[in-house]
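Is this the right way to post structure tokens for a design question? Let me know if I should format differently. Anyway, here goes:
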């Protein structure tokens, strides 16, 4: 025999607590309609325009703004430091290359033949018993100065071709011998 249902017992679908409006029973809250009749006189409930800024949207915007304010300075500093680091890496590579070139040049100075060739070329040195000749291009040799070109006694009358260090020493000697003349008012 089938079990008899109790007429008083509410079914699971119909069980609604009176403190929870809007769940299950249509009598607890009127349905929103746009003019259609629902079991009784037509109730017009105006359509509500959805809010543009809900509380959730405002909270989300505030959280995003706060995250941006906190992250932006750190991110900007990080990116700036990365750019500085890249520039320094390039500079280190350049300095390493320059260091290798200087080490090669230093190794060349250890060779006596290279030192001798540099002394002959740069300083016009000659070995004992050798004769040094200097060929002067007539277009680059300066004309001898006359007494009218400069102060008397300051420049020798005839310029001889001699090494640069002799020219420097002669200029120092001439400057030491010169007397200071008072400036004309």
């Amino acid at each position: 025999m089938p079990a008899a249902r109790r007429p008083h017992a509410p079914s699971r679908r119909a069980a609604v607590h009176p403190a929870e409006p809007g769940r299950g029973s249509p009598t607890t809250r009127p349905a929103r309609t746009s003019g259609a009749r629902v079991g009784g006189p037509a109730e017009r409930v105006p359509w509500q325009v959805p809010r543009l800024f809900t509380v959730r949207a405002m909270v989300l915007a505030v959280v995003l703004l706060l995250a941006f304010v906190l992250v932006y300075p750190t991110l900007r500093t990080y990116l700036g430091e990365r750019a500085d680091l890249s520039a320094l890496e390039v500079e280190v590579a350049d300095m390493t290359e320059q260091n290798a070139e200087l080490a090669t040049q230093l190794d060349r100075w250890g060779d006596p033949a290279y030192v001798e060739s540099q002394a002959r070329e740069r300083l016009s040195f000659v070995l004992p018993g050798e004769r040094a000749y200097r060929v002067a291009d007539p277009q680059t040799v300066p004309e001898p100065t006359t007494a009218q070109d400069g102060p008397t006694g300051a420049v020798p009358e005839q310029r001889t071709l001699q090494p640069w260090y002799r020219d420097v020493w002669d200029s120092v000697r001439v400057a030491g011998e010169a007397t200071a003349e008072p400036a004309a008012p």
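Format looks fine. Someone answered above. Worth noting: The radius of gyration is 52 Å. The mean pLDDT is 76.
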